[in-house]
Amino acid sequence: MVKKLTGLLSTAAFTNDGILRAELTCRAAVATVRREITVASAVYVTWDVRGRCRYVGSVHRGAPTTVSNRLAEHHQHRTEGGVRREEWALLTVLPMRVDASLPVILAAEGWAARILSPLDGVAHPQIDLVRPPAVIAAAMGT
């Protein structure tokens, strides 16, 4: 999935060998994410203890605590918060390029959700099948 989104992601998300940095995956606890993940915009994926994708989302707020703030909102959800705190074990964050606009970030979320088929959440952005991530990245000047 990451390979398909590579052109839309921050180059800082990868090692010199082109591998997603391990530190972009951590426990899906707000305090842990606040301490370990500092990006202003991202696509994020939650996983359960069985390694199944639970949720795919995106956030674009401009603050370094953007992802942890959004995770806190998920955990505080009136009806689903308890289940999310219990079931979401790990969080992988895919930092977006700094020049990525909100429509680009939403497209990346839509593609990630299409590829991963998360168990939770169904309100993902629609994707344009003739504009895969590589086409979107090329239009951005990659």
Fraction in helix:
25-40%
On the 0 to 100 scale, the average pLDDT is: 91
End-to-end distance: 19 Å
The unreliable regions are: none
Task: Tell the overall outline.
Answer: globular
- Count the E strands: 4
Instruction: Record the strand order, biggest sheet.
Output: 1-4-2-3
CA radius of gyration: 14 Å
How many helices? The count is 6
Summing up helix and strand content along with how strands pair, one would put the structural category as alpha+beta
Largest sheet: 4 strands, antiparallel
Q: What percent of residues are in strands?
A: 15-25%
H/E order of the elements?
Answer: HEHEEHHEHH
Structure description:
There is one protein chain. The protein is an alpha+beta fold and 142 residues long. The chain has helices at 2-5, 30-36, 66-75, 81-87, 102-116, 133-140, and strands at residues 25-27, 41-47, 53-60, 90-95. The radius of gyration is 14 Å and the shape is globular. The mean pLDDT is 91.
Summed up:
The protein contains 6 helices and 4 strands. The protein is of the alpha+beta class.
List keywords for this structure.
142 residues; alpha+beta; four-stranded antiparallel beta sheet; 6 helices; 4 strands; globular
Topology:
Layout: H1 2-5, E1 25-27, H2 30-36, E2 41-47, E3 53-60, H3 66-75, H4 81-87, E4 90-95, H5 102-116, H6 133-140
Antiparallel strand pairs: 1-4, 2-3, 2-4
